[in-house]
Structure formats: C-alpha cells, structure tokens
Amino acid sequence: MKLLDGKEVSAKLKEDIKRETAELTQTLGRKPHLVAILVGNDGGSETYVASKMRNCEQVGFDSTNLHYEDSITEEALLAKIAEINQDDSIDGLIVQLPLPKHIDPEKVTEAIDYKKDVDGFHPINLGRMQRNLPCFIPATPYGIMLMLEHYQINTSGMKAVVVGRSNIVGSPMSILLARNSNPGNCTVTLTHSRTQNLKEEVLQGDIVVAAIGRKNFVTAEMVKEGAIVIDVGINRENSSETKSGFKLYGDVDFEEVSKKASWITPVPGGVGLMTIIGLLKNTLEAAKGTVYRKA
Ligand code: GUN
Question: Which candidate among 73, 111, 122, 225 keeps its CA 20 to 30 Å from the CA of 159?
C-alpha cells in the first residue's frame, strides 16, 4: 500500500501557488482577494472557513470572512452577494454550506456571479465542467484530481465507483472521472442511499471515492484487492485525547482497507488538505482572469 499523501502534495502545490501569487500581485498592483460568507455557528463550518482564510493569507491573498447570525434573512444575504458581485476588488466569493433552513441554497448558489464562483457550484460552472470547457471545478473533486495527477496515476479505462451523490463532491467527482481527460476516462458508477447491492458495486471499483459522511462506512470486504481508495470523509467526534477536543474519522476503515488498497488517502492528511488547494487554485485563476476574462 502506498499513501496518497495530502500533506506532501498540498505543501508542494501551495509553494507553486505562493510563487505565482507574488508575480500576479506585481502585475495587478493588488493581491488576489477571496471573500467567504459564513452564516450561523456550526463548529465544523467555522473551522473550515478559518482554515480557508488562513491558507489564503499564507499564499499571499487577501481574505475576508463575513460572518452573519443565523437570523440573517435570505433577502439580506442575496443583497450582500449582489454587492460583492459588483466589487472589482474581489475575485472570488464562497458561501459556506450548509445554510440555515430558511435560506434556499440553490438561490444563493445561483446569485453568485459565476465568474467569481470559485467553489464551482453555479450551474454554469457545472455545465461547463461536464462539457470540458474552462470553468471553476468544485474544490474537493479538483483537489482529488490534482492528487491523482501528482502521483501520475493513469486512470484511463479504470472502473471508478463513487459513493455518495452530493452536489459538492460525489456528483461532480463522477463527471470529472468520466471526462475525456487525464486523470479521467474512467467508467463511472455513482452510488447513493438507494443503490442496491452496494457492496457488490463498490467491489467492482479500481478506484473508490468515498463521500458519504459516515465514519468507517467503507470496509475491507467492500474493496477489491489493489484498488485506489480516496476517502473524502471528515467525521468529527468528541475526544478527550486531542487538544482540539475532537477527533477526525474518514468514511473508510483505514486500518483494514489499507491492507488491500494499492493507494489510499489518510484522514486527516489526505483529501481535506487538497480541497484547500483546489480553492486556492480557483481563486488564483479568478484573479488572473484565465478561466473567464476580466471585464
Ligand atoms: N461545505 C462543505 N464543503 C464545502 C465547500 O467546499 N464549499 C462550501 N461553500 N461549503 C462547503
């Protein structure tokens, strides 16, 4: 078994981004700027956004975290998004999900200018991704593709099984792996909560991407010998063993599955770090105007 080491790959790619950012800042006369909107007080979301902001600063971006109370109205949030869309000093805008129940995430996603949608969630970016056109690719799937690319894993012709069909990971991941690209060119099965005989489906996978959000959901008996296993899960459990007061678990039973896998991502230290790289790369591209030309 070999480790798909998110720490090593993200550190290298972060250095590349930092170098490019320094050059771009000279040319633009300002730093790339990412705004993240966070609503409410979900512990996980607060941690993720704080990490995104910290990483922005580390590579030389400006970052702004707009943190609103749970009680903000949908109207007020949409008005704020419209204001940011118009602000030429801001290159990228993300709204951390999930949102409180009274705010429609679809409305919010579509309100963001697709040229600033560095999460790649806007239908225009999704459609363009499916067509293999320049676009912003959702950060987690993008990070996974960068990781496969880094280790020069040739996925062409492989059978890929994606577990979980979320808009954020499973669904875009299945599109990317099926695209005529490298990595890509897989025969993809997208499985979900209604899939029958899930174990048999996952056993077919030369590549398995686990994005269900349930601790140790993928067990050794579900995984083919020699499979490449990508664990997207970040399941937090309270723990007295760690300084933070919680411990992270993946969607894959690493201990057992790693005995069968050819390659596997650890949790933590795997996909999570690559998600950040995906977001940073999208923001850099947005500032450069290479995906969509600046007006
Ligand atoms: N919630 C979980 N993952 C993500 C992400 O990549 N972007 C946003 N905006 N919200 C998320």
Answer: 122
**Looking at ligand 1, which residue's alpha carbon is closest to its atom 2?**
97
What's the rounded Cα separation, in Å, for the pair 290 and 83?
Answer: 23
pLDDT in tens, 105-163: 999 999 999 999 999 999 999 999 999 999 999 999 999 999 999 999 999 999 999 99
Q: What are the pocket residues of ligand 1 if the criterion is a CB atom closer than 6 Å to any ligand atom?
A: 94-97, 119, 139-140, 168
CATH number at residue 85: 3.40.50.10860
Are 18 and 58 in contact, with CB atoms under 8 Å apart?
yes
The answer to the question of residue 8 being in a domain is: no
Please check whether residues 146 and 229 belong to one and the same domain: yes
- Render pLDDT for 181-228 as a digit per residue (tens, 0 to 9): 999 999 999 999 999 999 999 999 999 999 999 999 999 999 999 999
Q: Ligand 1: which residue has its CA nearest to atom 8?
A: 96
* Catalytic residue (one of 119, 231, 251, 253): 119
Task: Extract the tokens encoding 203.
Answer: 């056993």
Residues 212, 153 within the same domain: yes
3-state SS class at 254 = helix
* Bind-site residues for NADP(+): 164-166, 234
Q: How many CB atoms lie within 10 A of CB 288?
A: 18
Residue 52 appears among annotated catalytic residues: yes
